[in-house]
Amino acid sequence: MFPEVLAVLLGRIPDRSPARVPGWRAAALPDRVYPVLVRDPSADVPGILLTGVTAAEWDVLDAYEEDLYDLLRLPLDGGGHAWTYVAPDGADTPAEPWSAEEFAGRHLPAYVAECRVWRAEFADRSAAS
């Protein structure tokens, strides 16, 4: 959702537009500052739809998200679909809501710094293989 994170991970900011995913909500993960999407028929989670992401960029995003999430194609409010990282089926469902505003205000600069370290390590691993 945050262009600062995309710029560090991908080296650019893909085209972005607001989107909503019905039937899902953003939940706070224990001991982490970032969220996970969990099924909730009464919810409607806002997000950002990225377009024009290359195969190489998907590889980076998939590596970054690791095994914490499943990648699902979800319907968007108003039509269309998007590939979205969500909580795996059968995972414990966090109850606490996650706030993008709180994340941006309290955690974003440190998170971007962590992303920068991860991206450099990823580049080193990729160059070695």
The name of the CATH topology is Hypothetical upf0131 protein ytfp
The averaged pLDDT comes out at 93
As a whole number of angstroms, the C-alpha radius of gyration is 15 Å
Q: Indicate the CATH class.
A: Alpha Beta
Structural class: alpha+beta
Q: How many domain units?
A: 1
The strand count comes to 4
Main sheet attributes: strand count, strand direction, barrel closure: 2 strands, antiparallel
Helix share bin:
25-40%
How many H/I helices?
4
Strands side by side in the biggest sheet: 1-2
Tell me the CATH architecture: Roll
Query: Would you identify the regions where 5 or more consecutive residues have pLDDT less than 50?
Result: none
Distance between the termini: 30 Å
User: What letter string, H or E per element, gives the SSE order?
Assistant: HEEHEEHH
Q: What general outline do the C-alpha atoms trace?
A: globular
In short, what is this structure?
It comes from Yinghuangia aomiensis. A hairpin with a 6-residue loop joins strand 1 (15-28) and strand 2 (35-51).
